[in-house]
Amino acid sequence: MNNTYRELMHKYGRIFGVLGLLVMFLAPTMMWIVTGVSPNWAQLGAGVVALSVIYLPGGLIEMMTYSPLLGTSATYLAFVTGNLINLKVPCVMNATEICGTKIGTQENEVVSTISVAFSSITTVIILSLGILLLIPLRPLLESPVLAPAFTWVISALFGALGYKYFKGNWKLVIAPIVVVIIFSIVMPTFVNGQVIIMILICAIATLVVSKVLFDKKII
What is the pLDDT of residues 56-112, one digit of tens each? Predict the structure, then answer.
């Protein structure tokens, strides 16, 4: 992939990233202007610092972990629209597998960008329908029959997504599973509270083990 394309994507990515931030701040700013109620700047500053300490490291780790998979343009689009781990990355991996492209190639850049764009559009449509149908469907969703199912939605989702990739690369799966099990036994509180850190640790462990397995021609 030529450098001109990457430079162009970085240029537009930064522009639309800034525009995205401005749009996010537009709603509270308009409330401030219309109501005349200004923020408590001391509390706002303390909140920003506290949240930065918690979420900034995770954001940097996500960027380093997922950017090579997403590609240049899809990275900007995915980080603006959000839901990387549970939507954007699985969509990109699935699209890459279907199209038979390789990560880092120009073809995969196109595939990943299209998959992230359509997953974002689909999310907006589904959420819009959910808002419109929330009241009519509320009795059904809160019924005793369906209520237990909602507690297992995330587990079922990630189990299905994980199995699809695990079955073809089961030797590479052993390292991260062992790491998570060990941390869950020794430091259960850390695992539950620092999911992003665990993702980075597992990614590093997988890379190291993969390098060894490839060098020894085990895989």
Answer: 777 787 788 788 888 888 898 888 888 887 788 888 888 888 888 888 888 888 899
Cα of 208 vs its chain's centroid, Å: 23
155 with 123, same domain: the answer is yes
Collapsing DSSP to helix, strand or coil, 167 comes out as coil
Q: Are residues 94 and 194 in the same domain?
A: no
Q: What is the pLDDT of residue 193?
A: 64
Q: Identify residue 201 by its one-letter amino acid code.
A: I
The dihedral sign for the CA sequence 144, 146, 149, 153: negative
pLDDT mean across residues, the chain: 82
Taking 3-state DSSP, the helix, strand and coil percentages for the chain, each rounded to the nearest 5, stand at 85, 0, 15
The pLDDT of residue 142 is 77
- Extended strands (E) in 38-91: none
**Domain extent for 173:** 169-219
* Number of structural domains the chain divides into: 2
Distance CA 87, CA 169 (A): 21
